[in-house]
Amino acid sequence: MGRIFKTPGDDSTEATLRAMHITNELDNYYERGVGWIRTIIAIIITMLVVSAYEFHSDNSIWENTADWFIEKLTNWVSGLVD
Fold first, then answer.
1. Residue 2: helix, strand or coil by DSSP?
2. Is the pTM of this model over 0.85?
3. Structurally, how many domains does the chain consist of?
């Protein structure tokens, strides 16, 4: 005998377990949906902040990142060749 159910052969046990399972699945879908919505909102805010920074300054984050990556790649390749 479990802590929750007194009679395991009862039909209400199966119905209760089914209801708990459905509720848990709906909760999982809700949490995933909210997580994706938060992610999309964070991406949009980040895009706006980066665009505003690049517009109001002479820096380009994309060009700086690409230049840094190319420099690191060049150093790595030259280290392998030497």
1. coil
2. no
3. 1
How would DSSP label each residue in the chain? --SS-S-TT-HHHHHHHHHHHHHHHHHHHHHHHHHHHHHHHHHHHHHHHHHHHHHHSS--HHHHHHHHHHHHHHHHHHHHH-
- What are the distances in angstroms from CA 46 to CA 37, 41, 49, 68, 74? 14, 9, 5, 21, 30
- For residue 61, what pLDDT is reported? 87
- Residue burial 1-20, b: 16+ Cβ < 10 Å; e: rest: eeeeeeeeeeeeeeeeeeee
Angle at 20 between CA 14 and CA 25, to 5 degrees: 125
Domain of 73, in residue numbers? 11-81
pLDDT in tens, 53-68: 999 998 888 888 899 9
